[in-house]
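LPXTG cell wall anchor domain-containing protein (Cellulomonas edaphi), 183 aa
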Amino acid sequence: MTTNPRRFPALSAALAAALALGCVVLGASGSDALPQDVPLHVDFTELHAGAHAEKSWPVSLDYQAEVTSIVVDPVASGGLLWTATLCPTSGADCVDLAALRTGDLLDAGTYQLRVGVTVKQIDPNTSQEFEGRLRVREADAGLAFTGGSTTPLLLGALASGVVGVVLLLVGRRRRQDDADGQP
């Protein structure tokens, strides 16, 4: 059984295209671990001048977390002094959310997120809301990549493409030699 040598360059090109497509598909499916959002929404009602109020809720981090974004937006109103802190239940020092920056690290553990307001003076139509969001992700040491590595496929596609080009050049040279009557 004989094979047609003209098929090899086409097969090599098809293999290169399939491997390149595999790189595109695998590369698009990869992503880092999902970030965790900690919403900050507090609404205080019936506050009067001289009052202090605080609300808190637990926040649990199963891993050392890196802050990827922090938005703290107390609704602007004169006479209200807002605080927002993240306090480890272990008794370590609290972290002022207004002082957190992107890239800061938070240890794994359970925290109490506390939002407080102190009223100096209050107008009847003053908004008493605190909005914000803390977004964290697992620190670099343990990020889980959910996609595959495309390097082996990319190298295979490149090698297959090079083999295809070499086979095409050899095939052309043979056809040209056959046309010229050379062995």
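The radius of gyration is 32 Å. The chain is about 30% helix and 35% strand. ok done for today
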